[in-house]
Design brief:
It is a single chain. The protein is α+β, with helices and mostly antiparallel strands. It folds into three domains: 2-97, no CATH class; 126-163 and 270-391, no CATH class; 167-265, no CATH class. The chain has helices at 2-8, 18-27, 33-50, 64-70, 74-91, 97-104, 107-125, 167-184, 202-222, 247-257, 273-286, 305-308, 311-322, 380-391; strands spanning 129-133, 145-149, 155-160, 192-196, 226-227, 237-241, 264-265, 295-300, 328-338, 344-348, 351-359, 362-370. It has an eight-stranded mixed sheet with strand order 1-2-3-8-9-12-11-10, sandwiched between helices. A four-stranded mixed sheet has the order 5-6-4-7, with helices on both faces. Helix 3 packs across helix 5, helix 4 (64-70) packs across helix 5 and helix 6 (97-104) packs across helix 7 (107-125).
Length: 396
């Protein structure tokens, strides 16, 4: 992979050019002909939809589309192709695609709204629901998504909302992307694997970025596999680099560490997410569902959420909250987690917690809390179909 990478991206400015991204897809011998064609199609489509200058976008916050284009790890290649194919699908239907692509093009809205909108719409479109983004309704605020069961015209409204990022999370995101850009966009560009260990303040980050640059240059000159900890006193970052001729050593180190070449593993935080969801978020989102219609609340969460709490206890506690809103079908929490655990699903009555691998070493974790006090008119066939979509089960 890195032979093609170094041949194509010789200057930092090359990362900002669609032609160079396409050239990488063409020259990377790691890809099969089909994979290469899929990635080329992906870049050509996104070039038209997002614009010629999109890759030059400057931002200090996490911008998933830009991140996955620039990150050449396997999971990012899978992600960007799936993202592109899903956009193509919704563009071909009357879904108010303009509202969706408008959210994708703005970095702040992309992570908070655009990507979650796309992920949830994809989930239900596979279950034979017609999708409309930001539908027009007789209410003060437009719902995020309207689902219509094509077999019986049952309407369901979906509200999707992330928790607002804290100041600590913003600082953490800035740290991640500053380091990732330093490793992938600034010369010398050299194969690496890295993990953030601790959040840095502004002064620490500035010093760390300078050290990373010096460290990469040493590895390039010495033509050796090097560990950051052997050269700098540091408790912020674990980093290994190696020139192409020493790639076997880097891969061996990654295998022992359970990480991947070309990837920077970030931090997670915000241990009070559960309380914010239970005490505030559910009530606020329930009020935005149009009166007289069933609704679903979807909350993307930090992956750490599922590590800090027993998911089955979360189901029990949230169920007590959800029954206060009889028009809400339930609440879905989900996160993508880098993991190689086996697929698993656990039930508590009609609620569940599931772990499902969606591509190599990346799982989709979902926690769905069903409202046992659902009173709004809802066709049983549509409810079953929706439930199967949440479980990712095939329709009968």
């Amino acid at each position: 992979m890195y032979d093609a990478f170094s041949q194509v991206f010789k200057r930092s400015s090359d990362h900002y050019k669609w032609d160079k991204q396409i050239e990488f897809a063409q020259k990377n011998r790691k890809f099969s002909p089909a994979q290469s064609r899929n990635l080329i199609d992906c870049y050509e489509f996104l070039r038209v939809e997002l614009g010629e200058s999109f890759l030059q976008h400057k931002t200090n916050i996490y911008y998933p589309v830009l991140f996955h284009i620039n990150n050449k790890a396997d999971y990012s290649i899978h992600w960007i192709i799936r993202f592109s194919n899903t956009l193509k699908f919704f563009k071909s239907y009357e879904t108010n695609y303009k509202a969706l692509i408008g959210k994708i093009k703005i970095s702040r809205k992309c992570n908070e709204e655009g990507i979650p909108f796309l992920e949830i719409a994809e989930m239900f479109s596979r279950a034979d629901f017609k999708i409309e983004f930001e539908p027009t309704v007789d209410a003060p605020k437009k719902p995020d998504i309207k689902l219509v069961d094509v077999t019986n015209n049952q309407e369901i409204y979906v509200e999707i909302s992330r928790l607002n990022d804290s100041a600590k999370r913003v600082l953490q995101t800035q740290m991640y992307h500053s380091i990732f850009n330093k490793l992938t966009r600034e010369r010398p560009i050299i194969p690496f694997s890295a993990k953030l260990l601790k959040r840095a303040d502004a002064d620490q980050l500035s010093r760390l970025l300078s050290e990373i640059n010096d460290f990469k240059e040493q590895a390039q000159v010495k033509q050796k596999f090097l560990l950051f900890k052997d050269y700098y006193k540091n408790d912020l970052l674990e980093l290994a680099v190696a020139p192409t001729i020493k790639s076997r050593e880097l891969k061996s180190w990654c295998k022992k560490k359970g990480c991947e070449v070309g990837n920077l593993i970030g931090l997670s935080l915000d241990k009070n997410e559960f309380e914010r969801i239970r005490d505030n978020k559910i009530k606020r989102e329930a009020k935005q569902i149009p009166a007289g219609y069933p609704g679903l609340i979807v909350i993307p969460v930090d992956p750490l959420f599922f590590w800090l709490r027993d998911p089955m206890k979360v189901i029990i506690e949230l169920r007590r909250r959800v029954i206060e809103f009889p028009n809400i079908i339930g609440v879905l929490l989900y996160a993508h987690i880098g993991s190689s655990n086996n697929d698993d699903i656990r039930f508590d009555k009609n609620s569940f917690y599931s772990q499902q691998e969606i591509y190599k070493d990346v799982q989709l974790n979902k926690l769905f809390v069903f409202n046992e006090n659902l009173e709004v008119n809802m066709k049983e066939d549509s409810l079953i179909k929706m439930y199967k979509a949440l479980l990712n089960l095939p329709l009968e």
